[in-house]
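Annex B, item 7. Sequence and structure tokens for protein A, then protein B.
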Amino acid sequence: MGIARLAAAGKLLESAGADALLILGMTNIRYLTGFSGSDGALMLCREGSWFLCDSRYTTQAGEEVSGCRVVEYRVKVDAIANLAAEQGWQRICFDAEQVSVDLHLRLSAAMEKTRLLPLGGELDNLRSAKSAAEIEAIEKSCFLASAALEELLPTIRPGVEERALALELEILMKRAGAEEKAFDFIVASGGRGALPHGRPTGKRILPGELVTIDFGARLHGYHSDETVTLAVVSADRRQREIYAVVREAHDRAIASAKPGVGCREIDAIARDFIASRGFGEYFGHGLGHGVGLEIHEKPTLSPRSEQVLAEGMVVTIEPGIYIPGWGGVRIEDTVAITADGCRLLTRASKELIFVG
């Protein structure tokens, strides 16, 4: 795994016209080497690769890192500069999104004779299409999250606080084996459902309200992402109508997701349907995003996306309607793009579920 991925990263050297590639983003380091620690640096050229870390991680790197020589350092910038000097590298490209201005200044000062060339999202693109093993890891994470929600549903009733639901859902996931929650859960009830990123509060849910729960688990470094909107005890005609519109937009987008279709096109399928039912102004965010070692990664499904779906990509489909003063509905599944369509990885029912 590590050698093949390192070779793919090494091809970026040719397009950048560089002697070496410096990677400081820990997600890409994990993807390329298998290292799961929180600090280090990866340097590679056409002839080989080096993983640099301090003494806290030397043993761990020896156990996890594949395809690289492990080098221990005391000062990261000095180690990078020393290796560059030893190898005679004159042009080094680096993952610019992961390098602060301060770090760039220190690297430049330590390597005065070396030109540093910024890379954009080229490294992240390597992670866009997942291997079968990665999809399996994501699917296991999805299963844990969906199963935890199913266990939570009978406990959701009028009077329960939003933050109590979020805490219990996290506990259920971890008891089932999740290493961590994928992100800070969203639990938004009643009028707060109009907040697409409504963090849970001490608000108690009430009969007749809708409750949106956006949740996910992390397992072996891979994330899941799923959203359900529930009805507490009952739902009126308008709530049912808006839920049906979002559900239809969700279903149409999933039915259209396959290799070769533009991410912008998938977004438009859901967005245009919502607009045709008179709710276009209430759907402001993109339809979805990639999921993997990060909860948000490439590709992006939005009106501005230039990317095209390909087999192996794992993306969310999450249309929503958010009406200030009324509330909101979002329905989200994570799907893996297959040779001729897509496959659901998340498991919770997307029928309107009544609780309480």
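Protein B:
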Amino acid sequence: MSSILIQNGTILDPSQKLERKGDLLVRNGKVAASGNNLGKADQVIDARGCFVTPGLIDIHVHFREPGDEEEETIASGAASAVAGGFTSVCCMPNTKPALDNEAQIEFVFQESERVGLANVYPIGAITKSRAGKELAEIGSMHRRGAVAFSDDGVGVADASVMRKALQYSKMFDTVLMQHCEEPTLSGGPMHAGLMSTTLGMPGVAAEAEQLMIARDLLLNRTIGCRYHVQHISTAWSVELVRRAKRDGQAVTCEVAPHHLLLTDESCRGYDTNFKMNPPLRSAADVAACIEGVKDGTIDCLATDHAPHLAEEKELEFQNAPFGIIGLECALPLYVKALIEPGHIDWMRLIELMTSASAAIVKLNKGTLREGADADVTIIDPQRRWTIDAEQFASKSRNCPFNGREVTGRPIATIVGGAVKWRLQ
């Protein structure tokens, strides 16, 4: 394999608590050295004015294959990932059929290898067909390489099934990711509050998320499974996780850009690009999520990248599907939400998008240590640009941030020692 010398950048590696100007040498798919005067290489990239970081990692994406390839495929999703600076992503099992057996897990790995862009890791379903009734083949999927288990899109409503899932996950030392939504309090297209009443639409109560988190934490007190709350969105949800951490529970959680930047006020125009699950919440919930990032209650940042066809999103608000795409604009959106207001610095942001994410699913990624896989993202923190969903590599265009001016952008993405994307 060829060698790459990345020169004149600022190496930012939270896994080593390292921030220094210098060069990074990549050879034979591995990080060979960092420092100065590293010799020659087959390819030289000038990273002057840029951060050189471990490749970004997203543990929550939807690539729709198999079943809805017109919305996204592993190939188009991986292309979208590298365009956003992500070198590794974990895809959810709500495909058709669901990723609920080892053959489906193997398919994701094979397709990821065939495409040869970002590393795509499958997350297996907790229950067969994600129906919430009978446990899927957790053991065999884990042995085949599933990095976590989730029924994302729906929560496991049956407490007895959830207890068994926690026990099995503990047995295999894998992480169980829960879409926290109590179904009897769900069913609406947006957050239950003043805005839903004003718009005349049924709402999803904040308690729908909070009740399931509370139940699962109670079930897990004596089991001790590694338990992960997906796309956390309410103030009391953050407080529940905070208290569980204080009690020593093995709980982690993630937050998405839209739950740090937008509120249910965005739904006033009935634009379905603002319809997502969990829904956009109140300003107080947004503030609590930001505080959760600041104090470490929220462990990592994820996109919940969820592609949909334009004709689906053109349905009326109540009938349109939930979800937005986000891989290609996540980084500057986090800059907008967290760095520009001074909540966290760049070192912490990169940690939340690399080593912290890798730790949750136990990926041997997220570092620029010598000998590590050469997954590298080069970021221009000062580059100003306008988000244009029409230019995205994704097959879908359902982005509520389309047209927004932002600052900060990846300029090159290196996966396994090879440049997979470079800003033109």
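Comment on protein B: The chain has a mean pLDDT of 97.
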